[in-house]
Predict the structure.
Amino acid sequence: MKIANIDLGPRPVMLAPMEDVTDRSFRLICKEQGASMVYTEFVSADALIRDIPATVRKLSIDPGERPTAIQIYGREVEPMVEAAKIVEQAGPDLIDINFGCPVKKVAGKGAGAGMLRDIPKMLSITRAVVDAVKLPVTVKTRLGWDHESKIIVDLAEQLQDCGICALTVHGRTRSQMYTGSADWEMIARVKENPRLKIPLIGNGDITTPEAAREAFDRYGVDGVMVGRASIGAPWIFHDIRAEIDGNGAAPLSVGERFSLLRRQIRESVDRIDEYRGILHIRRHLAASPLFKGISHFRDTRIRMLRASTLDELMEVLAQVEELISNQSL
């Protein structure tokens, strides 16, 4: 699959953009584990124009993580154009426009998935951003605002006509947020439209290697995007690639998985500071499948998620790793 001149190879698997998750360290780890392309956290156009330091830092890209997309969101044409030009100077491989974020602080203000209630403005923003930069521009969106307005088949064509180079569709409406199941039949309808010529990337409920394979085999998408299933489990890309490619690669060992989590923790601390770096990484620890099914784990889990120093957290992880190793004997 190619997005403009970016060759992602057959059946690419992307890391979805996620706020407070897809920082530079995590993106690089996911790329090393087999992600075909990675996306930054959401970048607010308004905050970028105001030169807010926390937002500007999101533009930093490690050479090893490429190809990388920087994703921007906003609700007005002019700020989105200005932000796109600033992002272009940061040197990503492409710019992605976020028309899919469902959270109230974004969608409720008319940005992200909020644009699904104002399609003319969505198209105006898309067309203006495409015209303003030389980089490939892509879009990520949802099926529609709610069950009564699943407009994605026609919308995909309209976005294509604005000049985007690829489209990612999350198989839920904004009203669903992240509840229920992603509607992959609807995603397939987008792909089956003979007038759609750009690559289609499917997103939603890709939680296992088997789900990724089914997305390609049954629903015919050109690429798949993995979001929440990667939190605390960057090795999912290794497992998906092994399933899709049939290369017989063995799953990572428990020790290798713990090593990746320790690396995330250390790099988070190095990037921010000890206290805030540990706070940042707790979301990964809380979600990691490594800790599911461990007997009598409640008290240890509480200690792990309350640890406030690097030494304390590493000590708890060492104990957990030993516990898992002993249970598997």
Q: What stands out?
A: Residues 254-271 form the longest helix (18 residues). DSSP finds 14 helices and ten strands in the chain. Strands lie at 2-3, 6-7, 13-15, 37-44, 68-73, 94-99, 137-142, 167-170, 200-203, 223-226. The mean pLDDT is 95.
